[in-house]
Design brief:
With about 375 residues, the protein is α+β, with helices and mostly antiparallel strands. It is about 20% helix and about 30% strand. A hairpin with an 8-residue loop joins β11 and β12. The protein is globular, with a radius of gyration of 21 Å.
Length: about 375
């Protein structure tokens, strides 16, 4: 018999073991947590609500988080539920436990018809995609329904790439005195979207921003007007909290790895051997005035030129986002497609949830 109950700190060891089990897909990954499971949950949601699925004989066979994080929803700030970290033991992936989890979530009487929850599923996670599709077809009254609102691409690319950088821009590291202006630009640029996360270093939330500080941010402005911030983004290393282990490569990447020594002159990502850790820096909290491609390109150019050693960079963008084309044009970037869903208890979403594009931060997926 399986019971679903709130997370306890004594669950950490069992959940870390569960996270070590590979996630299905073309590129087989283990999304590991160390030294604590809950630390990763705290950077995905500011207020985690983690539940454990416990089998009376085996122990933890599933876990999920339905916590909240701040976002702009129709020009207003709100705490939005984000569904993440769904892990189900392979022996329980026939769909019945997923349905059980949906029933449990429904029993919590969450007001998602007024403010829909959000989740991200990568396209090669066929098991999860199929479970969502089956649930949509059944349309069981009272259970959460998934509505796809965006297709996203996660780009893994090397800092050896080059990007255009117009000479008119000044790029520098952010300082504490910049935070107020950064918050103002973030609000101006993102509040017009139907759905966008709200990030703020001035919130001083150490758990939510663990490993991230104002010094991780780069600011761009015009040389003629250096006091006016036109954009910014952060480089975030989350390896002290969560790591990605490559278990098995798809055929095309396995073939590429075999000839990598002959292709060292190309800006290819640094791929570990099977079973090794993939080291990445996340491009985080990308705020660009008018979503200007030249500004984004200049920031990328600066990041790549100033890395002391070749590094893997990871960025996630909605395919409709104007910035998407900059990375889409890089032929040596590894691209992983995913879907953004809004989740409620109705067959339809309110019309006002539809915006030009969705903003997703890779580090918080």
């Amino acid at each position: 018999m399986i019971t679903i109950r709130p997370y306890q700190t004594t669950d950490d060891a069992a959940l870390i073991k569960l996270c070590n089990i590979p996630v299905s897909g073309d590129l087989v990954l283990a999304l590991e947590r160390s030294p604590s499971y809950i630390a990763g949950s705290k950077i995905q949601t500011r207020k985690p609500q983690v539940y454990v699925c416990e089998d009376e004989k085996i122990g933890a066979v599933g876990v999920f988080n339905i916590g909240t994080r701040p976002a702009f929803v129709n020009e207003k700030m709100a705490d939005v539920h984000y569904l993440c970290d769904l892990r189900i033991h392979p022996d329980f992936q026939n769909g019945s436990l997923f349905l059980r989890i949906l029933r449990f979530v429904a029993s919590l009487n969450l007001n998602w018809n007024v403010l829909a929850a959000m989740t991200v599923v990568f396209a090669d996670n066929q098991l999860m995609v199929e479970m969502i599709q089956k649930q949509a077809k059944k349309n069981i009254t009272g259970l959460p329904l998934y509505h796809q609102v965006a297709t996203i691409t996660s780009f893994l690319f090397s800092s050896k790439n080059t990007f255009k950088s117009p000479p008119d821009y000044l790029i520098r590291r952010a300082e504490s005195s910049d935070l107020e202006a950064m918050d103002h630009l973030r609000e101006q640029e993102q509040k017009h979207l139907a759905y966008a996360p709200f990030e703020s270093m001035s919130a001083n939330d150490q758990s939510y921003n663990q490993g991230l500080s104002v010094q991780n941010y780069l600011i761009i402005s015009e040389k003629s007007d250096p006091s006016t911030i036109l954009g910014f983004m952060a480089l975030w290393d989350t390896s002290a909290i969560k790591t990605t282990r490559i278990i098995r490569y798809p055929f095309y990447l396995k073939a590429l790895k075999a000839i990598l020594p002959l292709l060292s002159f190309l800006p290819l990502p640094i791929l570990p051997k099977g079973g090794g850790l993939l080291k990445t820096l996340y491009l985080h909290d990308i705020v660009i005035k008018d979503r200007s491609e030249p500004l984004f390109s200049a920031l990328l150019s600066h990041i790549c030129k100033t890395q002391n050693y070749p590094a893997n960079l990871l960025c996630t963008l909605d395919e409709r986002d104007p910035l998407h084309s900059i990375l889409k044009a890089k032929p040596w970037a590894i691209q992983k497609k995913g879907f953004v869903y809004l989740v409620n208890f109705s067959p339809e979403l309110p019309q006002d949830f539809r915006g030009p594009y969705v903003v997703v931060d890779a580090a918080r997926i």
